From TrEMBL, chain A:
The lineage of its organism: Eukaryota, Discoba, Euglenozoa, Euglenida, Spirocuta. The keyword Manganese does not apply. It comes from the Eukaryota. NCBIfam families: ssl1. It comes from Eutreptiella gymnastica. This is VWFA domain-containing protein. It is found in: Nucleus.
Automatic annotation (TrEMBL), chain B:
One of its GO terms (molecular function) is zinc ion binding. InterPro entries: TFIIH_Tfb4/GTF2H3 (IPR004600), vWFA_dom_sf (IPR036465). This is RNA polymerase II transcription factor B subunit 4. It comes from the Eukaryota. Pfam families: Tfb4. One of its GO terms (biological process) is regulation of DNA-templated transcription. Belongs to the TFB4 family. It is found in: Nucleus. Keywords: DNA damage, DNA repair, Metal-binding, Nucleus, Transcription, Transcription regulation, Zinc, Zinc-finger. One of its GO terms (cellular component) is transcription factor TFIIH holo complex. Transmembrane segments: none annotated.
Length: 368, 205
């Protein structure tokens, strides 16, 4: 059939430099729309990632292979997940050979998860995936999760079939009862059973067209999902007990997080309730189960709860020579750049600043 | 390979220093130890001169912050930055002083006394980071630093904005230094310095 020719969409200006692609900008703005809504979100997330490591993972229809794409994207996802959701925990389950294996239980330590992903890179897919076994494996783990937390599953699926011992729909009903929100990202084609899983649990199901789409869809899961309507009526805890330890220095003492290695350090964080020592935050005290955090960790989630509104395109009826961007004071060249206006302070920004403001900064320089 | 690639920590080609100067006249009037705005400017000029001397490719930017607005005063329309252009301190000094003067002159004195005491630190930091983002996109081997010289106390409603600025600065690997000349400590700048690896100081004399 027709070959995709992305090089044909590149344009050059008089001096041979490549012109900025405005369609890229449009795509970015579409992403921003979803994140803009001010809704109640579960910021404390407990997420299990289910990886499909069956034969389907070795397919090479995406570059370099489905399994490589899945792991690369997961690696980046992990890295950003704890940055944007510092109070959350994640675990990894792998399904292959008609069975499911829990590789990492819920942890707030991104290093352990990254090490696992690196090891998986060397493994190969085999056998058939099993949705039922994978779901059964994780359902019991969600029992210990506190009531105020958001329970989620992210399934990265690469096959067109599933080998299940019993009735998958029963397991799906159990997920619904336990309020576990399952989202699926698939490669290949859409499966009815995965569509049912996502729909019944209020998750999203996407089947991806190419590598960039896959990446965008998985990274879209970084934003905490809006709390579904049923949670509004539940008696969720209004106040959550958390500890805010200060770093203290003293003599060399053992810490709880490295007790197997018997590591002694002079400084650490002491749990305000039981005075157990930990090397880093955030963590959950292993003695008294108190969540230990520092205030910047809470602040990292604020931009999800108070998102910045979208900037509007400036109307062309008042043509003037290139205006300057209010953010970086560089001129906005009319042919390659789009001026955008903040609805509150009415200042004009260039495309680059607009992207930076909405993706990273979450603050408008004009609205003091 | 993807997992093992660590960026080489080689010496940066050039350094960009962004200075945020608080020109809130209401708060400058209440500074203890008889430090005046002109004193501060003199010392600042020495530092800028030293910065530009350290490396021919070093650049700088200046942001002035008042009670209701903050703007990038240097580089300005008459002095746009150019990667090949070496900044000579003589040219820079005149432009900076002129622009600062114009900014202060144009600040409006209308408004209640309560509002006059506010600072727009979060807006100034946002400007600084937008500018840095633009410069780093053009020349990625630039090391960047932000120095904030303030006299105003913290405005607590800006907490969320300042935390967002700090996290963005961490991602861009920009250190934020704070120099507080006012009467009270600024916990915002203390946090900023700690989280971004900058320095915080409140001189006592």
């Amino acid at each position: 059939g027709e070959m995709d020719k992305p090089w044909e969409s590149i344009e050059e200006d008089e001096s041979g430099n490549i012109k900025h692609n405005k369609t890229l900008y449009v795509r970015r703005r579409m992403e921003a729309e979803e994140e803009e809504r001010v809704v109640r979100r579960g910021v404390i997330r407990y997420v299990y990632v289910i990886l499909d490591f069956s034969e389907g993972a070795s397919e090479k229809d995406v570059h370099p292979s489905r399994h490589a794409l899945m792991l690369e994207t997961l690696y980046d996802f992990l890295h950003s997940f704890f940055d944007q959701n510092p109070l959350s925990q994640m675990g990894i389950v792998v399904t292959r050979d008609s069975a499911a294996e829990k590789l990492v239980a819920f942890t707030a330590n991104p290093q352990a998860l990254q090490n696992t992903v690196e090891e998986l890179y060397l493994a190969t897919g085999s056998g058939a995936p099993s949705i039922e076994n994978a779901l059964n494996r994780v359902i019991s783990s969600f029992e210990d999760v506190p009531g105020y937390a958001s329970r989620e599953l992210l399934v990265l699926y690469n096959s067109l079939h599933s080998c299940d011992p019993g009735n998958v729909t029963d397991v799906i009903k159990e997920c619904v009862e336990r309020r576990i929100r399952c989202s699926v990202v698939g490669l290949g084609a859409e499966l009815f059973i995965l569509r049912k899983l996502a729909r019944d649990t209020h998750g999203v199901y996407n089947v991806c067209l190419n590598e960039q789409h896959y990446r965008d869809v998985v990274l879209a899961q970084l934003t905490p999902p809006p709390s579904p309507a049923f949670m509004e009526h539940e008696e969720t805890a209004e106040l959550i007990l958390m500890g805010f330890p200060h770093q203290q220095r003293g003599g060399a003492t053992l810490c709880f997080c490295h007790r197997k290695e018997k590591r002694q350090t002079n400084e650490g964080y002491f749990c305000p309730r039981c005075h157990a020592k930990y090397c880093s935050l955030p963590t959950v005290c292993q003695v008294c189960s108190l969540t230990l955090v520092a205030s910047p960790h809470l602040a990292r989630s604020y931009h999800h709860l108070f998102p910045l509104g979208r900037f509007e395109q400036v109307e062309e009826d008042t043509p003037q020579e290139d205006p300057s961007c209010f953010g970086c004071c560089m001129p906005i060249q009319g042919d390659t750049d789009l001026p955008l206006r903040c609805p509150k302070c009415r200042q004009v920004f260039c495309m680059e600043c607009d992207y930076f403001i909405h993706k990273s900064l979450h603050n408008c320089p004009g609205c003091a | 390979f993807f997992f093992g690639v660590m960026s080489a920590t080689s010496a940066p080609e050039r350094t960009l220093l962004v200075v945020i100067v608080d020109v809130n006249s209401h708060n400058w009037g209440q500074v203890p130890h008889k430090v005046t705005f002109d004193n501060m400017l003199q010392h600042l000029m020495f530092c800028l001169n030293a910065h530009l001397q350290l490396n021919a490719a070093n650049t700088l930017a200046l942001i002035a912050s008042d009670h209701n607005r903050s703007e990038i005063v240097f580089p300005c329309d008459s002095f746009m930055p150019n990667n090949d252009h070496v900044l000579y301190f003589d040219d820079v000094k005149d432009a900076v002083l002129q622009q600062l003067h114009a900014f202060v002159e144009s600040s409006s004195l209308a408004g209640s006394t309560r509002k006059m005491g506010r600072s727009t630190l979060s807006s100034a930091l946002s400007h600084a980071l937008c500018y840095i983002n633009r410069i780093v996109a053009a020349s990625p081997d630039t090391a960047c630093r932000v120095v904030a010289i303030t006299v105003s106390p913290d405005t607590s409603s800006q907490y969320i904005s300042i935390m967002n600025n700090i996290f963005s600065a961490c991602k861009l690997q920009v250190a934020i230094d704070g120099c507080v000349l006012g009467a009270c400590h600024s916990s915002f700048l203390q946090q900023a310095a700690e989280l971004t690896g900058g320095a915080y100081s409140k001189p006592t004399s």
